[in-house]
Amino acid sequence: MVDADKFEMAMLANSFDLYSENAKVCNEEGVSMEIITEKGGVYRQIRPEYTVMKNEYGNILKHSGKFGLNPGDRDKIFKGLKEEKKKKGFNTDMKVA
Question: pTM score, two decimals?
Answer without folding.
Answer: 0.69
